[in-house]
Design goal:
This protein is an alpha+beta fold and about 375 residues long. Helices cover about 35% and strands about 25% of the residues. The chain has helices spanning about 15-20, 45-50, 65-70, 75-90, 105-110, 120-125, 135-160, 175-190, 250-270, 275-290; strands at about 5-10, 30-35, 35-40, 55-60, 95-100, 115-120, 160-165, 165-170, 170-175, 190-195, 200, 220-225, 230, 240-245, 315, 320-325, 340, 345-350, 350-355, 360-365, 365-370. Helix 7 (about 135-160) packs antiparallel against helix 8 (about 175-190).
Amino acid sequence: MSDVLIIGETFRSPEMRHEVPLGVPDPFVYLEHDGVRHVYVGSMEAERIRGLGLDLEVHPLEEIGIDELYAQNLDWHEMSLAWAARACAHAGLGHATVPHTFPAGHLDRLRQTGIELTVDQSVFDARRRAKTGAQLAGVRRAQRAAEAGLDVAVALVRSADNDGGVLVLDGEPLTVERVKAAMRVVFAEHGCSADDFVVAPGPQGAGGHEMGHGPIRVGEPVVFDLWPRDDTSFCFADMTRTIAVGPVRDEVREWHRLTREALAVTTSMIRAGVECQSVFAAACDVYESAGYPTQRTKTAGEVLRNGFFHGLGHGVGLEVHEGPYMGLLPGGVLLAGDVVTLEPGLYEPAVGGVRLEDIVLVTDDGCEILTRFPYDLEV
């Protein structure tokens, strides 16, 4: 196995968080050389990382002469380049594979010192395909938080009154902003957080990842696409439901029926060894048979704004979107331990969209559906 090198902190680097599953806010060095896993980190973090009980050789920066560097009065950026180079030299690193997110300044400096660095994201993606027990537990917690948040949202829209076609609650319009505020409280109560998420009513729901804004109207489909992150494991969940208050248009009801069919068909296919692209193709078959365009049928260069205009799903873990991907591009095969989403949908810019998304754990002979929320369109 080739040596690897990661430089970063664990809040924004999924590669680093996978190797050191602890919140460390400042960049540090993780490397593997000759089968030994090394961490070079400030002394204030060293004992915390040792406390994880992992097979890590933890080196405080004093071990590589950080005090000598302080005496040189280097600026912060130069200091970080210098001690990272010392860390690699201390471990005897001569060549390593680094992720796509590897800092450009460190890439230049370390290559100047003679270290051969190869950028290959696939090495790091493969490490994270099968979730650890702690990561899977985090995904489950995040999924329960998503469902609890959506429960609150549904309760709010059910409690609202129809005032001239606009939902009103306690004398004020029920807006996306009010709904999101209530959902964030529930996420926090479940030990999760979310920078933002989709609550997109009416035409906004046809805007992909349009986050949503403004009042919610009677009869409009509202796309709820939720990806809270578990605060302990830093793992995400991902779930989408489409919900409307009051009678919806017949075409929206048909979109929902077809999307449930596409979800059921693709879920039945999930098991280790299945080609990712074939699962996407099965969703396209459902929509194309009903006369709707898909990414597969559009002409080259066409911007598809209606029909099924996105991929079917993706992996979820330390990133909300990670491999494997189920779409137009070859995605390889599903592996036991993958956690993936299935999210078919249909859209029309003037009306909105319908999307349903479940998250599943791939097993040798099928899958475990981690999502428990009902699929009902009209509440």
